[in-house]
C-alpha cells in the first residue's frame, strides 16, 4: 500500500474538523477541554453553521478557545459569558450562539448570569466543563470540589464546616422553567464521547429551534490540578466524580432525537 | 424636518430618542432616579415597531455585559443606570475599552458614597473621566444640561462610540433626568441592516464568512510586547479623540472679568448666577464643557487668558476643578464651589461664592 492509497477518500476513517486550525493547544496532555472543542467543531460543521456561529469563551483554562476554532468569538469577563450570549442571540436570532465555561466561571462568579440566562429561556447553549477545581489559576477550590478533595485552598480536604458543599448547578438548571434540555456527560471513553456529542448537538439544535435554554455539563479531568497522571485522573473521575455528578439527561422537553 | 415640540422628562427623552435614532437594544436594571427610562421603553414596546430589543437584566453587571455582547455583534446597544449601578458596571466598561467595543452608557447620577441618596449629584465625574475600571483607558463622556440635550446626545453618543470603537457615556444627573422641559425629538431613523453592519463594522462577531479570518473580540494578551503595542494603539486613538471631539459652550466669555466653569445641571444653574451677577454690574461669563472627556483644556486656557478668576461650580466636593487647574496651570486663580449629599445649589449661592471667593467682597 502506497501513501496515496492511505489518504485516498475511501480509506479515510478520521479527519480533524475543518473548523479546527493547527494552532498548538495550550491544554495539558490528558485534559478534557481539547476533546470537547473537537466535538463542538464537528457539530457546527455537521449542522452547516460554520458561517453563522458565535462562540463566547470564559475566563479559565478555556479562555483561549478562540484560538483553536475558526469561528467568530467574543471573550467574556469572568463568569459573564451568558450575558454576552443573551444579547448576541437576541440581536441575531438566526445565529448559533453558545458559551463555553468552567465551574468557577459558571457556578461561582457567574452564578447569577448563568441562572438568569437559563431561567429567561434564552435560545443559547451553555457548555459547562466541570473539573472540580480552578485549573487556570493553579488548582484552587471550586464550587464543585468534592467533600474531602484536596486543592491548594483546601489543602486538608474540602470540609463542609469550613468550605460549604459542592454545588450541583446542573440539577438547579433542570428545575428552571426556561431550560428545555439539561444533560450531564463525560468524554473519558469512546462511548461517552459519542454520547457527549449527541447531547451537545441536541443543545445546539434546541437553541436554533427556539425551544429554550440548554446546559450540557461535561464532567472533566484536570490532571494537572488534581496532580494525577492522565490515566489516573480518568480513574479518579469515574470513581469519585460520577458519584456526586451522576451522568445522563436531567431534563429533556425538546422532542428532538 | 421634525419640529414638533413635546413636554418630557429627561429620562423619557432618553427612551424616545434611543428608539428614534435606530437603537437595536436596551439592557438595564431599575434604579432611582432613572427608572423612567426602562419603564418608558417597556410602555412604548419598540420591539413591535422598530424591532428594538428591551431586556430587564438581573443586575447592572449583566446589563453592561449584554451591551458588550450586543455591541460586539455590531449593534447599537445601550444601558442606563444611576451611580451605584454604574459602579457595578466598571468591570464591563473596562473590558469594552480593552476589546474596543462601542456601546453607550447613561448615568443619571445620584449622591454617594455607597447607597448615598436618591437626590441629584455630580460626584461620579472622576469615575467617568478617569476610566473608572482597571487599566489605562478612557470613555468618551458627554454632559447634557437640558432635556433637549438628553435627546440629542443619544445619537451623538452612538456615533462617537462607533467612530472610535470605544464606550461612550452620557453623564447626566437626577436634575436633568427628572425635570420636564420642551423638547424636539430627533427624526425616526431606521435601524441598520445586516449589510450596513457588515460594511461599517467589519470587526463585528456575527458569524465568520469564508472570505475573512475569524473575528475575535478580546481584551486578553499574555505577551507583554503585544499588549504594550495594543495599549499604545489605544493611547493613539485617545489622542485623536482629544484632538477632534472636544465640545463646549461659552456664554458671555469675551468681555468677562470672571468665569464660571460648570457642566450639566450645575451649568444650567450657573447661567442664572451669571445673569444675577451681570445685573449687579459684574462681568461674569460661563464656560460649559460638553465633553468632560476629552476635556476642553486648550480652549479653556485660551479663553481664560487675562481673566481675574475662575469659579468652578459643581454638585460635588471638587472634581472637575482638578481638570480646570491642570488646564489653567496657575495662570489665573481657580476656586471651587460645591454642595454635597444631594443638595442642589441655588443660583444666589453661586453668586455669593463668586463674591466671597473671587471678588473678595
Ligand atoms: C474578576 C476575576 N476574578 C478572578 C480571576 C482569576 N481567575 C481566572 S480563571 C479562574 C478560575 C477558573 O476556573 P474554572 O472556571 O473552573 O476553569 P478551569 O480553568 O478549571 O477550566 C480565576 C479565579 C479573574 N480572571 N477575574
Ligand atoms: S490545568 Fe487542568 S483544566 Fe487547565 S489545561 Fe491543564 S488539565 Fe486542563
What's the short story on this structure?
The complex is a heterodimer of chains A (257) and B (361). Chain A has 257 residues and is of the alpha/beta class. Chain A is built from ten helices and nine strands.
Helix content range of chain A: 25-40%
Given the structure, what is the number of helices of chain B? 14
Distance between the termini of chain B: 50 Å
**Associated small molecules:** thiamine diphosphate, iron/sulfur cluster
- The strand line-up of the biggest sheet of chain A is 2-1-3-4-8-7-9
- Estimated radius of gyration of chain A: 18 Å
Instruction: Give me the CATH superfamily of chain A.
Output: Thiamin diphosphate (ThDP)-binding fold, Pyr/PP domains
Shape of chain A: globular
Name of the top-level CATH class of chain A: Alpha Beta
CATH architecture classification of the largest domain in chain B? 3-Layer(aba) Sandwich
The figure for the number of domains of chain B is: 2
Please identify the structural class of chain B as seen in this structure.
Answer: alpha/beta
Beta strand % of chain A: 15-25%
Shape of chain B: globular
Counting DSSP E segments of at least 2 residues, the number of strands of chain A comes to: 9
The SSE order of chain B reads EHEHEHEHHEHEHEHEHEHEEHEEHEHEH
Greatest interface and its residue counts?
Answer: A-B, 31 and 39 residues
Oligomer: heterodimer
Number of domain units of chain A = 1
Amino acid at each position: 500500500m502506497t501513501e496515496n492509497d492511505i489518504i485516498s477518500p475511501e480509506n479515510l476513517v478520521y479527519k480533524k474538523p475543518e473548523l479546527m486550525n493547527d494552532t498548538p493547544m495550550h491544554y495539558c496532555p490528558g485534559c478534557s477541554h481539547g476533546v470537547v472543542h473537537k466535538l463542538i467543531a464537528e457539530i457546527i460543521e455537521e449542522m452547516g453553521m460554520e458561517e453563522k456561529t458565535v462562540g463566547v469563551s470564559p475566563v479559565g483554562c478555556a479562555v483561549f478557545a478562540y484560538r483553536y476554532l475558526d469561528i467568530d468569538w467574543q471573550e467574556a469577563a469572568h463568569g459573564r459569558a451568558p450575558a454576552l450570549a443573551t444579547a448576541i442571540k437576541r440581536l441575531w436570532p438566526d445565529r448559533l450562539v453558545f458559551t463555553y465555561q468552567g465551574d468557577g466561571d459558571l457556578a461561582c462568579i457567574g452564578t447569577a448570569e448563568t441562572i438568569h440566562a437559563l431561567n429567561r429561556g434564552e435560545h443559547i447553549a451553555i457548555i459547562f466543563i466541570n473539573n472540580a477545581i480552578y485549573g487556570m489559576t493553579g488548582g484552587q477550590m471550586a464550587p464543585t470540589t468534592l467533600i474531602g478533595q484536596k486543592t491548594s485552598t483546601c489543602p486538608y480536604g474540602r470540609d463542609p464546616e469550613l468550605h460549604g458543599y459542592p454545588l450541583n448547578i446542573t440539577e438547579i438548571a433542570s428545575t428552571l422553567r426556561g431550560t428545555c434540555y439539561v444533560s450531564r456527560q463525560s468524554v473519558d471513553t469512546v462511548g461517552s464521547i459519542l454520547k457527549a456529542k449527541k447531547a451537545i448537538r441536541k443543545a445546539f439544535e434546541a437553541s436554533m429551534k427556539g425551544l429554550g435554554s440548554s446546559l450540557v455539563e461535561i464532567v472533566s479531568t484536570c490532571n494537572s490540578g488534581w496532580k494525577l497522571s492522565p490515566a489516573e485522573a480518568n480513574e479518579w473521575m469515574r470513581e469519585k466524580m460520577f458519584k456526586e455528578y451522576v451522568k445522563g439527561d436531567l431534563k429533556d422537553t425538546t422532542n428532538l432525537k | 424636518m421634525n419640529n414638533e415640540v413635546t413636554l418630557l422628562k429627561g429620562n423619557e427623552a432618553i427612551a424616545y430618542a434611543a428608539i428614534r435614532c435606530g437603537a437595536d437594544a436596551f439592557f438595564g436594571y431599575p434604579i432611582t432616579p432613572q427608572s423612567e427610562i426602562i419603564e418608558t421603553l417597556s410602555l412604548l414596546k419598540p420591539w413591535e415597531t422598530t424591532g428594538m430589543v428591551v431586556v430587564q437584566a438581573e443586575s447592572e453587571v449583566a446589563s453592561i455585559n449584554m451591551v458588550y455582547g450586543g455591541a460586539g455583534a455590531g449593534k447599537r446597544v445601550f444601558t442606563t443606570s444611576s451611580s451605584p449601578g454604574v459602579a457595578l458596571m466598571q468591570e464591563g466598561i473596562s473590558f469594552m475599552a480593552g476589546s474596543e467595543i462601542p456601546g453607550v452608557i447613561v448615568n443619571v447620577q445620584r449622591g454617594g458614597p455607597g447607597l448615598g441618596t436618591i437626590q441629584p449629584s455630580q460626584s461620579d465625574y472622576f469615575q467617568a473621566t478617569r476610566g473608572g475600571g482597571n487599566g489605562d483607558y478612557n470613555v468618551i463622556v458627554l454632559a447634557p444640561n437640558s432635556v433637549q440635550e438628553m435627546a440629542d446626545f443619544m445619537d451623538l453618543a452612538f456615533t462617537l462610540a462607533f467612530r472610535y470603537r470605544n464606550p461612550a457615556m452620557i453623564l447626566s444627573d437626577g436634575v436633568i433626568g427628572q425635570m420636564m422641559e420642551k423638547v424636539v425629538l430627533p427624526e425616526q431613523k431606521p435601524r441598520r441592516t445586516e449589510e450596513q453592519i457588515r460594511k461599517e463594522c467589519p470587526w463585528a462577531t456575527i458569524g465568520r464568512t469564508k472570505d475573512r479570518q475569524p473575528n475575535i473580540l478580546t481584551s486578553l494578551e499574555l505577551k507583554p510586547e503585544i499588549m504594550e503595542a495594543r495599549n499604545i494603539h489605544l493611547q493613539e486613538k485617545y489622542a485623536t479623540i482629544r484632538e477632534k471631539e472636544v465640545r463646549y459652550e461659552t456664554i458671555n466669555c469675551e468681555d468677562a472679568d470672571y468665569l464660571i466653569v460648570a457642566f450639566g445641571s450645575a451649568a444650567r444653574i450657573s447661567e442664572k448666577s451669571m445673569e444675577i451677577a451681570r445685573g449687579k454690574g459684574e462681568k461674569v461669563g460661563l464656560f460649559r464643557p460638553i465633553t468632560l472627556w476629552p476635556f476642553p483644556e486648550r480652549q479653556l486656557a485660551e479663553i481664560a487668558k487675562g481673566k481675574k478668576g475662575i469659579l468652578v461650580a459643581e454638585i460635588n466636593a471638587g472634581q472637575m476643578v482638578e481638570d480646570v487647574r491642570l488646564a489653567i496651570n496657575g495662570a489665573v486663580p481657580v476656586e471651587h464651589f460645591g454642595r454635597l449629599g444631594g443638595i442642589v445649589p441655588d443660583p444666589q449661592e453661586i453668586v455669593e461664592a463668586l463674591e466671597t471667593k473671587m471678588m473678595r467682597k
